[in-house]
């Protein structure tokens, strides 16, 4: 009898199962970046990974489930990177924030991924519960991340105000990340990390006033 793939359950996955799952996600990420959401499908992921469609469907019940996992990984990866850069930087709070934002606004891979997930994939959240839930987790992590930064930079902020300012920070950075490539020649609309840092520092200072 032919052995079925190792399904991911509540029990720890086998090495083979973990490897197969990673192969599927790697193929899905490459396909999404090349074709966008419109060209994304489980069959396309299977072809890209050199697997049968049934293998992909064994680990992920739908294309939306694959996208949700990619979105989760996207925010975890960059969230950890931001906090690492903010925490490791030396100098004033503003200088440390600038180091973190400089990475976000100048890293080509981040801006590319942000455009894919936040423009293409997120646009389908209203029609797909799985993607909507993943998008909700994305923003929860982003808000928590910037609330932590706000707590360190503006310690007198009350929790509710800190949360509100964190949401404003996320909106500011997200907007800059997605629109910067379309703002024309350098110097015409300078959405630099330094200006973003100043804007966030002003937001936090207004909250403390």
The residue fraction in helices comes out at: over 70%
**Helix vs. strand class:** mainly alpha
Highest CATH level, the class of the largest domain:
Mainly Alpha
Q: CATH architecture of the largest domain, please?
A: Orthogonal Bundle
The major pleated sheet works out as: none
In CATH, what is the homologous superfamily of the largest domain? Tetracycline Repressor, domain 2
Total count of strands: 0
Strand percentage lies at: under 5%
Reading the helices and strands in chain order gives HHHHHHHHH
Overall radius of gyration: 20 Å
Question: Low-confidence parts, pLDDT < 50 over ≥5 residues?
Answer: 1-11, 186-190
Q: Estimate the mean pLDDT confidence.
A: 83
Measure the end-to-end span.
71 Å
- Give the count of structural domains: 2
Alpha plus pi helix count: 9
- Kindly report the oligomeric state of this protein: single chain
The geometry reads as elongated
CATH third-level topology of the largest domain: Tetracycline Repressor, domain 2
């Amino acid at each position: 009898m032919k052995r079925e793939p190792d399904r991911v359950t509540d029990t720890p996955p086998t090495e083979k199962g973990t490897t197969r799952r990673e192969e599927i996600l790697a193929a899905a990420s490459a396909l999404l970046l090349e074709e966008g959401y419109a060209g994304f499908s489980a069959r396309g992921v299977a072809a890209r990974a050199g697997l049968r469609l049934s293998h992909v469907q064994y680990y992920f019940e739908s294309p939306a489930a694959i996208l949700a996992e990619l979105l989760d990984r996207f925010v975890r990866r960059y969230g950890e990177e931001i906090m690492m850069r903010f925490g490791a930087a030396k100098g004033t709070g503003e200088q440390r924030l600038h180091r973190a934002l400089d990475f976000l606004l100048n890293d080509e891979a981040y801006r590319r991924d942000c455009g894919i997930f936040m423009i293409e994939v997120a646009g389908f959240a209203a029609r797909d519960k799985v993607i909507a839930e993943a998008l909700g987790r994305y923003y929860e992590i982003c808000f928590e991340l910037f609330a932590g930064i706000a707590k360190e930079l503006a310690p007198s902020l009350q929790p509710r105000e800190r949360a509100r300012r964190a949401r404003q920070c996320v909106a500011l950075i997200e907007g800059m990340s997605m629109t910067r490539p379309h703002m024309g020649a350098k110097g015409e609309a300078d959405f630099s990390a330094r200006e973003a840092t100043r804007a966030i520092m002003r937001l936090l200072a207004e909250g403390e006033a």
